[in-house]
Fold this protein.
Amino acid sequence: MGSPRTLTLIPAYNEAANLPLVIAEIRARRPELEILVVDDGSTDDTTQVLRQLGVRWLRWPRRRGVGCAVRAGLRYAARLGFDVVVRIDADGQHDAGAIGRLIERLHEDGLDAVMGSRYADSYPGPAPLKRALATVVSAVTGRRITDATSGFWVLGPRAVTLLAAHHPRGYPEPELHLFLSRNGLSLVEVPVRSRERLSGRSSLTLLRVLTAGARVLLAVVIVPLRQRVQP
């Protein structure tokens, strides 16, 4: 068997200033990886920048949320026969040098998903609301989750197939943990270094953290009642 086909998936909203540096770092660190950017209805120059960067890209005409952008990217990956998807944010906070460690852990342990955690080595590191969210997710899934809002993931074949059809919408990361647990997919955290975003403001505002928390509480009730889906 050859090496698994791996796609780097970058959801982006108004990240025109950051994408050239993010993509340049991925190419420098992991030149063998193909890259797909999903533009979530940006209103800045993201489209023009993508035309110049020589990467695959998709675009929503209006903003639908990072969960929908990731689902679209996963459908693209599944249809084109990619085995593994690396999801990384477009703001430069994730160190592309850590991609290799996450991929190696996925393959060495035969896992379905590996998540890069900013707080695995320094818990309780996050702010109180994020810490509370991680505590709830950990209690429900029975897994130690320290970074319930991380956007740094490596997904294996079963996860790619399943999430191409069922990835949560909106701001999805906490719900994603519940969904993977409910459907019996394996996941581990790997400590990663986090950096300040290169420029601009985070889309994960206080209101969105509160909204994510409310959705998780609702999902705690709903997800266990849903029928499992087969990858």
